[in-house]
Amino acid sequence: MVVLTGPRQAGKTTLARQVVTSPASNFFDLEDPRDDARLGDPTLTLPALEGTIVIDEAQRREDLFPILRVLVDADRRNGRFLVLGSASPDLVGLTSESLAGRVSLLELPGLHVTDVGADRLDELWTRGGLPPSFTADDDEASAMWREDYVRTFLERDLANLGVRIPATTMRRFWTMVAHYHGQTWNGAELARSLAVSEPTVRRYLDALTDALVIRQLQPWHANVGKRQVRSPKVYVRDSGLLHRLLGLDDRDAVLSHPKLGASWEGFVIEQLLTRAAMKDAWFWGTHAGAEIDLVFQHGSEWIGVEIKRSDAPRMTASIRNAIDDLNLSRVIVVHAGSTRYPITSRVEAVGAAEILSDGLSA
User: Fold this and answer.
1) Which of 42, 91, 283, 301: disulfide with 329, CB 3.0–4.6 Å?
2) Number of domain units in the chain
3) Are 239 and 342 within one domain?
4) Global confidence as pTM
5) How many angstroms separate the CA atoms of 322 and 328, rounded?
């Protein structure tokens, strides 16, 4: 069984229909009442079907995964089930069942620079990676689509995922998170702003994280004699949705906004994390102000990534402290320009278009 997750409108259904050549009767879209009724009792309906069976929006059936586990055990053919869901595996119930050895988990995060070309990097950053937003006729149409997406997501999709929070409350919270984009989580401050408790805002944050629209980037804890940041950084995963929540509808508006640097940082991080070499990554920071945007292991090396919107970055005290405290083999400074040059023997500046197209090993 393959479980393909990703945010709404990322292209999961389109991809499934392009890849799977089974008969149309093998496709079940559980948002369609007719398909839901046709599925009926899966223990009776599914065993009789040949080829790959595609079940779309699987999170709408809470009883599904225990049944699929039984069916997989009865017939262990590879590729028998392709399950699509608009939520994290935790939320759709994968962790509640013993599926080890039976399932492969994949995530479709939206368009990547390698999908659209490096020459459209800024357009991808401005509009985000959800295909209908990126391919819209103009910036106005893209912004209108994203506004409709936010409204529909809050009013319908979250409820379908079992999140029972008023849409107006979640819109306020999501917008607040957009203003905290790229900062460490401060639940107390957001709780005061919303006049709710800290556990409540934490529940809001986890709901949006499970729905794959927020990323909580966890801190790395090194064995150093310094007070280190222990709260996650929060990011709106799609830069286009971030810009819509901030009211920024075109590139000029983004470039003139105070969140410019944070927006660029989040965009580059999200693009990097979709690559296999960056599956497990953290940020590192101390209470004295030293930090580095990403830390990850590549083979036997520990590598740091610092992200700058400028096109001519230089050595900083934060990078120097990170190298010394974390014993980093090298640091890559990803910048908005196009040139590649060494800053020191262990620090190199690389343009975002190059590294996002060719990968970190280039």
Assistant:
1) 301
2) 2
3) yes
4) 0.91
5) 7
